[in-house]
Amino acid sequence: MTEESEDIQLTEEQEDALVQGRNVAITAGAGTGKTTTLTERYVTILAENPSLTPENIVTITFTRKAAAELTERVREEVYDRLEAADSPAAYQRWRNVLDDLEDGYVHTIHAFCTRLLRERAVEAPVSLGFDVLDEDGAATLQREVVTEFLERHQDDDDVALLAQLWGRDQLVDVLTGLLGERPQSEAVLEEWRDAEVDDYVDICWEVVCDLDVADARQTLYADGLPDQLRTIAGRVDHEGAIADADGLRAYRTFSEVATTLPDDPEESDPRDCQRAILDLYEACEKKNGGLYSSSGYVVGDRDDWGEYGDVYDDLKDAIDTVIDAVEPHEDAVETTPGELEANSAHYALALIRVFDDVLAAYTAEKDRRDTLDFPDVIETTLEFLRANDAVTERLREQYAAVMVDEFQDTDPRQWELVKLLTGVDEQTASNVFLVGDEKQSIYGFRGADVTTFGAARAELQAVNEARGVDHVPGSDAESPTTLELSGNFRTLDEPLSFLNELFDHLFQPEGDDHLPFEAPPQDLTTERDQVEDIEGLTGSVEYLAVPDDAETAAELFGDDHPVAEGALDHTIEAEAQALAARLTHLFDEPPQVQDPDTGAHRDATPDDTAILLRRRTHLDRYQRALEEYDIPYTVVGGVGFYDTPEVQALTNLLRVLGDPQDDVSLYGVLRSPLFGFADDRLAPAVAEADSVWGALAETDDPQLADAFDLLTTWRTLSGCATPSEDGVLPWNRLLSRVIDDTGYLASVSADERGRQAVANVEKFRDQVRTWSENGVHTAAGLLHRIDRQAEIDPREGEADIPGDAEGVRIMTIHSAKGLEFPIVTVPDLGSDLNFGRSVDDHGYVQLVDGTGDAPPLPAVGGPNPNDAFSIEKTAVHEYANRQSLPQERAESKRLLYVACTRTRDHLLLCGTHKIDVDESDTIQLDEPAAFDEADRWRDWLQPALLDGTLLTRAIREGRARGEIGEASYTIQSPPRPVDWNTDDDAVDSAPKISIPEPPSLAPAKRIAATTLVNAVADASSDGHSYSQREESVGLSPTTFGTVVHRINELRPPRDEWTALIRRLSRMNGEEPTESDLHDAVEHAANAVEFVNQVEANAQLQAVYDEYSVVARIDGSRIVGDIDRLLVTPEAYHIIDYKTNDLSSTTSTELAEHYRPQMLAYALALLQHDQSRDVRASLRFTDAGVEERFNWGLDQMADIQSELRPMMDLVE
């Protein structure tokens, strides 16, 4: 479900965006054809400048996927130009463009910088063969460097000080986080590297403190407050006689302030005045914040003061005066430095010094490996261009145009790179093109700065003005830098009108005017009817309002209502139940949607629906609710990879290989699908033994003894025991041996999570292969990598199965960026937005960017002055939050906008609310937070969409119609679920859960691709059956083909092929002859050589072995496994090895024989992704011959038509 249709005709706004010879900045609202505009501009530049090639155009995209999509769209346009060419010269021009397209500069910013440095490695400050770490690789290396550094320097004073405050593990997290926050953390380091404690405290006073000195002095002296405090000071000469601890603390504070302040306000020290306000405030403060209302809450009983009863009376009067005096400064005192800030300064600067050393160690390790990480790549490129005017000038001459997509998610450094490449600062830039949408800037947590777009727009307009081109010829547009795309080709009128009205409200400024980080609203017009036939389609918007407590839910709906039962567990459980129940009604009486593939109007299904989450914290609750009501779903990206049973079993096995005395892990391995022993068999066998390993060594149970033999063999092959003469296997090959020896893939595939489990095993095997290739040789080292990776990313997603995504898609909003769905649901409207970004998970370390008036600052928690074991956040944290909170709140609005604008036809909002039912059964909503203090999405939505009257009608009648501006929507009461899944063809889409499907429903037809081939062959006129190889005394044709395929999948060293062939053959109960061994090696070598040649000439994005696919036709499936699948930007390339004997037939005849199999594979891939063509290569290894098939994007219907009669041949 991609973002745009391919057949959009350019609007006037899009035509304006093609203007040449001037710099353009354009705001492209959601679904307005941004990619089409980029594509057309790219081709227009080439059309209007015949001397240019794709190597003269730089296009920066936000993701690799976007780069691939744009390249493919340009390629399609070039093909159209070729077809329309009216002369040999024109044809040759576009033929050259097509040939050069792969060399074009369409990249992400990191890939572009990497290419630039590699192409100029002789001049650039990089080694010739440098590598680039991806984000995961960098995170792993950073944690390793930090861990090793702390181990070597644990006795250093600064390290010891910080470890005492946080503990070692949290210190590792903080330092690793600082490395990951570069370049922001480097800017803080540069400012504070050589600072002293007094420097930090001074900044706290001069920058952080919001308490005005004049106001503080006025408060203290205007009504003679110091004089009143002096009447109390010094009157208690025996404090031990007073039993009122809180009152005594206030007495001491008042006495100290009275002593500190002089009689003459002009002689008072400014900081003493500010600190006095803070001290007096804290003396009258509640434990949980805020002032007490009167002195009676601050002090105890008069009897507690004994002989000092008169002091007690005067103290109470003074407290009441102080409360009234300091109350106006309640906000300002939160940023006023005190003893806590003086304490934290030591820790802040110690952290800076340690980080300085850690950064040096990280840099040294990268240098040793000739490696750069992503921040390095950009910074190195900038430094290179700044220092080399001649190189920069050559690049400006080469790059005739620079275009940047998704510019709202860039940052100042990336904009500086664009300026260097184009001459913006010199006012010579003439063809910079920036396209984006501030309303969709949602990557602040990655360093994106939405304000960069506005600044860049202003700079480009200044350049245009200086060059006399600040206009768009033939257009009413005000300026080339203020263009907009506002025609929406995605969303039906009903939801789009609603979203226009809603976000016109949400995107209002919190103050009088929009600040640079606040996105203004944009009214989008409905243009979908220009590209699709939507006559008869009607969109809708619903708001599902859910009580957030069980008592209210039970009162409104009954104790047995799913929402009431769910609320007993958790508020989000209630919401998940409400949403799932509502979906059962939606699928039971489905609305009409437009099929994204065919354009046909049909009933909606779960496959049309997406649940978009802000975060994955409560993902499992939504999964359980969907499962409970038999709603199929797919978690896009998934979570908990390392916790899945199939990965846990392999991890436990690695632990056992390293330490066979690990009873817990060994018992788990024996119970897992690796061996499959039941508890009632294992428990008696190990009950009396000192260890499980010992019990296995002495067991009389033959199958347990076999398990012991296998484990012993694997320990030997891994090098964990004394190696044999055969040597030691790398970990990835050992893992493959384990999987083969146990039939592990077959075992896990039989589970209800079969395909997902197999994909997870393959993903784990691939990770282990990477670690092995990077030099991990010991079990301890491998387990360290696994544990660290799980620690770095505990919510690592399960392996993707792109060809088998079914049902409701559950994904994060960030993952859904750029996608669209017929039905979009956005839950979690009532949960806290969790403002406050920090380096660590606890919020104790925050970084504050510098401004024109203030330096960058580290906010570091320190020990409470009254409790050294309690870490407190400081005034600098409050300052940091005040700086960042308005920006984070603005981004939260934008995140909601992105979520809602993914919808094509129907939008369902869902959120919990505080609902009260009084004695007269009147239903009321609690007041939301103020607009500029909102900390939940519902705080913005409730005033615009929901009130007590509307909610009352919805609850009593099931639903109620609301209006916002000229748009309407429905308030929906949480319904009880219905049994929606009653159609025979729905069974195949049931979720992969452990609940048996109703026996009365017959499963959909499922055909193996090889079965289809045989059925077609049996029904053919000649009835010929092509065997893969003639029968011999050694290997059967099936086993022969299997061993050739396995060699190509595993790719072991050539000298190990013979041993592998023997082992695989014996596993099938067969013994190869010498002729079999020779032939198998020859066939495998031919296949390997062929694949290597193909891959060497391809721009590979991914490679898969034994890739399982599913083609769907009329409720039935064709399933199969592609031997090797290559993914390039323009195509899927299927490679299938065939070991048939060609002595009595031709490869052409065999290719036609296998055509049904290739058709099924092609259909499965096209149904998964219609952005790529499909190519298939049948490699006949007997003669080294290739036969090819090709299918284009427009042939899916033809493929289906060809396959249908073939499927009818299968009984």
Offer a few descriptive terms.
globular; 6-stranded parallel beta sheet; alpha/beta; single chain; 1211 residues; 45 helices
Written account of the structure:
- There is one protein chain.
- The chain is of the alpha/beta class.
- The chain is built from 45 helices and 32 strands.
- The strands form nine sheets. Strands 15-16-14-17-22-11-26-25 form an eight-stranded mixed β-sheet, with helices on both faces. A six-stranded parallel β-sheet has the order 3-2-6-7-1-8, with helices on both faces. Strands 27, 28, 29, 30, 31 and 32 form a six-stranded mixed β-sheet that branches.
- Strand 29 and strand 30 form a beta hairpin.
- The longest helix has 31 residues, at 339-369.
- It is globular, with a radius of gyration of 35 Å.
Task: Outline the secondary-structure elements.
Layout: H1 12-16, E1 24-28, H2 34-48, E2 57-61, H3 64-84, H4 88-100, E3 105-108, H5 109-119, E4 131-132, H6 135-152, H7 157-166, H8 168-180, H9 184-192, H10 197-208, H11 213-221, H12 225-230, H13 245-260, H14 270-283, H15 309-326, H16 339-369, E5 371-372, H17 374-387, H18 389-398, E6 401-404, H19 412-422, E7 432-436, H20 451-467, E8 483-485, E9 487-488, H21 493-506, E10 525-526, E11 540-547, H22 550-557, H23 562-569, H24 571-588, E12 592-594, E13 601-603, E14 609-613, H25 619-628, E15 633-635, H26 645-658, H27 663-671, H28 679-686, H29 692-698, H30 702-718, H31 731-742, H32 744-749, H33 754-773, H34 779-792, E16 808-812, H35 813-816, E17 821-826, E18 845-848, E19 857-860, E20 862-864, E21 867-872, H36 875-900, E22 903-913, E23 915-917, E24 923-925, H37 937-945, H38 948-957, E25 959-964, E26 967-972, E27 1006-1008, H39 1009-1019, H40 1037-1050, H41 1057-1067, H42 1074-1096, E28 1102-1113, E29 1116-1127, E30 1131-1138, H43 1147-1153, H44 1155-1168, E31 1173-1180, E32 1185-1191, H45 1196-1208
Parallel strand pairs: 1-7, 1-8, 2-3, 2-6, 4-5, 6-7, 9-10, 11-22, 11-26, 14-16, 14-17, 15-16, 17-22, 27-29, 30-31
Antiparallel strand pairs: 12-13, 18-19, 20-21, 23-24, 25-26, 28-29, 29-30, 31-32
